[in-house]
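Retry 2 of 3 after timeout on previous attempt. Resubmitting structure tokens to design endpoint.
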């Protein structure tokens, strides 16, 4: 009999800063590949269903699957392990598998920390998970499946890496029908999709490129447009987010995708993220024509020294130029910033905050705190230097300081992040610009920040 597979998305830890929930693409692809191979698959998304551990226990007990696959980022890792434990208690004969960004680089430790976990699937999971299911179905040993780390005779063994999927068009579209899609609409009317995997850069803080490879693999524009059309028809939604790490690495492909959207007359709005050195004004104009409304950019820092330490490969000058183009074209540029990268000082952080206000005067920047995710050189450096202070992964939500350096304490970093918000809202220019209408929500944020620190004075610039 074909094994019954349940895929699980753990909830974020209480108090963590989190984005709105949506149907995860990683699990969606795994499910689609399994369904294509006639496996019975279902999904328990603890995030969107707001399930407690006890709710999860009762859900998994009812289903009694043969294989349970749990996804996890660093933030959801500890919750994922609790769910694995509950799964084994409720379904002692099932095989438990964990996959995703965190366990890929924490494979042996995950198995050590959680005796109830049988297998870790590293990196891209579709073919590894399918092979595992096939082995289990055939009653064969799974201990040598490539791309996995598992236990054999009491020892942890790490099998070789599985090659990446070259032809992304060969994958079925994510099995979104396994999620309660109407529940997501309570949060936002946007659907997410990914048109590429991997990146050609190698930034020191980034786990994605180490996860999906330093080669840009992409879907054909027609294949992407087919998915957009299908999503629009099925769910009646016309707003989309492209989750690619760098949407415009291959500029002719991005242009071809825009042309395909236009050719099919798709009336959609979308946003995406990319690097400032991988875009031109002409491409931005084409993107706008095809429905793009905003673009996220990895601005990271306003200090060249910090950018170089990050191995980001861009300059503040280029960022300024590109933000100018984006605004000129009537698109919204969103700066993604990292405060507190090793080497950051109070001075360089303030340089960044002022830089962000200059390039994005109307919108507060997206300020992340440098977070050392396992698998990144930043993590190795922070560990090696003895700077790591917080080892509770439940705190790794990119808003909380995790380490301190000789140049910046955690307290200072926390204050800098708060200061960035205060500074933005307290600029006289922001308040007194007659052209700007202050909305109630803005006024509330301002009031909150004012109450939080009444010592701050109004600044002239
Ligand atoms: C979309 C996205 C989100 C979404 C959905 C999150 C999610 N869990 O998928 C939202 C907006 C909610 C989000 C939030 C956050 N995100 Co985010 N996000 C992404 C992004 C841009 C794309 C993810 C994606 O869909 N990829 C495409 C799919 C196909 O790949 P995948 O998810 O890796 O899945 C494959 C494998 O991982 C594996 N796999 C995954 N799960 C499983 C399970 C099993 C059983 C198996 C066998 C295999 C397997 O197989 C999948 C198919 O190949 C990634 C960057 C990236 N490119 O991955 C960052 C990324 C995952 N996010 C990141 C971060 C930091 C966050 C936040 C902490 C930020 C915040 N404060 O909001 C939160 C917390 C995330 C959480 N709860 O898990 C980091 C994670 C770093 C880390 N080590 O954990 C990443 C890598 C970005 C980065 N470079 O720093 N994020
Ligand atoms: S450009 Fe973005 S996706 Fe690529 S390595 Fe740097 S941070 Fe990661």
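Retry 2 succeeded. Sequence:
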């Amino acid at each position: 009999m074909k094994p019954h597979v349940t895929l699980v998305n753990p909830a974020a830890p209480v108090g963590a800063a989190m984005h709105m929930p949506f149907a995860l693409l990683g699990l969606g692809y795994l499910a689609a590949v399994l369904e294509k191979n006639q496996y019975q698959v279902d999904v328990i998304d603890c995030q969107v269903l707001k399930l407690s551990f006890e709710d999860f226990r009762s859900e998994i007990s009812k289903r009694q699957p043969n294989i349970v696959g749990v996804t996890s980022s660093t933030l959801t890792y500890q919750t994922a392990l609790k769910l694995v434990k509950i799964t084994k208690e409720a379904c002692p004969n099932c095989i438990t598998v964990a996959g995703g960004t965190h366990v890929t680089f924490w494979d042996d430790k995950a198995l050590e920390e959680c005796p109830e976990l049988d297998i870790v699937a590293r990196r891209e999971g579709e073919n590894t998970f399918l092979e595992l299911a096939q082995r289990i179905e055939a009653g064969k040993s799974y201990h040598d499946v490539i791309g996995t780390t598992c236990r054999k005779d009491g020892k942890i063994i790490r099998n070789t890496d599985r090659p990446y999927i070259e032809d992304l068009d060969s994958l079925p579209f994510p099995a979104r029908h396994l999620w309660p899609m109407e529940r997501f609409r309570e949060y936002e009317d946007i659907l997410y999709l990914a048109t590429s995997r991997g990146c050609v850069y190698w930034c020191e803080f980034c786990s994605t490129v180490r996860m999906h490879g330093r080669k840009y693999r992409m879907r054909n524009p027609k294949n992407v447009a087919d998915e957009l059309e299908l999503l629009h028809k099925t769910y009646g939604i016309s707003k989309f987010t492209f989750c690619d790490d760098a949407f415009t690495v291959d500029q002719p492909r991005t242009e071809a995708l825009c042309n395909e959207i236009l050719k099919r007359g798709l009336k959609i709005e979308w946003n995406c993220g990319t690097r400032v050195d991988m875009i031109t004004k002409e491409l931005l104009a084409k993107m706008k024509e095809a429905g793009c409304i905003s673009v996220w950019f990895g601005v990271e820092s306003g200090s060249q020294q910090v950018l170089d330490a990050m191995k980001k490969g861009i300059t503040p000058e280029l960022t300024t130029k590109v933000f100018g183009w984006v605004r000129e074209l009537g698109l919204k540029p969103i700066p993604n910033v990292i405060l507190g990268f090793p080497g950051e000082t109070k001075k360089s952080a303030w340089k960044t905050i002022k830089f962000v206000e200059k390039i994005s005067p109307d919108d507060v920047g997206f300020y992340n705190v440098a977070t050392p995710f396992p698998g990144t050189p930043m993590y190795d450096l922070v560990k090696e230097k003895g700077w790591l202070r917080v080892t509770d992964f439940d705190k790794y939500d990119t808003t909380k300081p995790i380490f301190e350096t000789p140049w910046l304490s955690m307290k200072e970093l926390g204050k800098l992040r708060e200061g960035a918000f205060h500074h933005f809202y307290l600029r006289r220019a922001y308040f007194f610009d007659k052209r700007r209408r202050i909305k109630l929500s803005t006024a509330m944020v301002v009031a909150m920040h004012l109450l939080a620190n009444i010592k701050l004075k109004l600044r002239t610039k």
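Attempt log closed. The first strand starts at residue 4 and ends at 9.
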